[in-house]
Amino acid sequence: MDGIKYAVFTEKSIRLLGNNQYTSNVESGSTRTEIKHWVELFFGVKVIAMNSHRLPGKGKRMGPGHTMHYRRMIITLQPGYSIPPLIEKRT
């Protein structure tokens, strides 16, 4: 899937896991319906709400241009569903 970049692990996102809400960065061109459909299909869960906000790209000191803009999605799942951790613990 090209839409979802990676999961976000900040203090807020870890706190939201208790409310069955998962946070990830997605491509700025992806729509909510595309992301919702992909999450439900890939993880086999039921999404009940999605919130998003656009994060600005960072400017560069040297050279032209800025870094790409991206969106952060907070995905709320129906009670009883969960997304398994993507990172396994190494021993």
Structural class: alpha+beta
Any idea of the CATH topology?
A: Alpha-Beta Plaits
Give the domain tally. Answer: 1
Q: Please trace the helix and strand order, writing H or E for each element.
A: EHEHEE
Number of helical segments?
A: 2
Beta-strand portion reads 25-35%
Outline the biggest β-sheet. 4 strands, antiparallel
Describe this structure in words.
The chain has 91 residues and is α+β, with helices and mostly antiparallel strands. The protein has a single domain (4-57, 67-77), classed as 2-Layer Sandwich (Alpha-Beta Plaits), CATH 3.30.70. The chain is built from 2 helices and 4 strands; from the N terminus they run βαβαββ. It has a 4-stranded antiparallel beta sheet with strand order 1-2-4-3. The longest helix is centred in the middle third of the chain and has 12 residues, at 32-43. The relative contact order is 0.26. The mean pLDDT is 83. Binds to 23S rRNA.
Brief rundown of the structure:
With 91 residues, the protein is α+β, with helices and mostly antiparallel strands. The chain has helices spanning 11-16, 32-43, and strands at 4-7, 21-27, 47-55, 70-77.
Short descriptors:
alpha+beta, Alpha-Beta Plaits, single chain, 91 residues
Protein topology:
Layout: E1 4-7, H1 11-16, E2 21-27, H2 32-43, E3 47-55, E4 70-77
Antiparallel strand pairs: 1-2, 2-4, 3-4
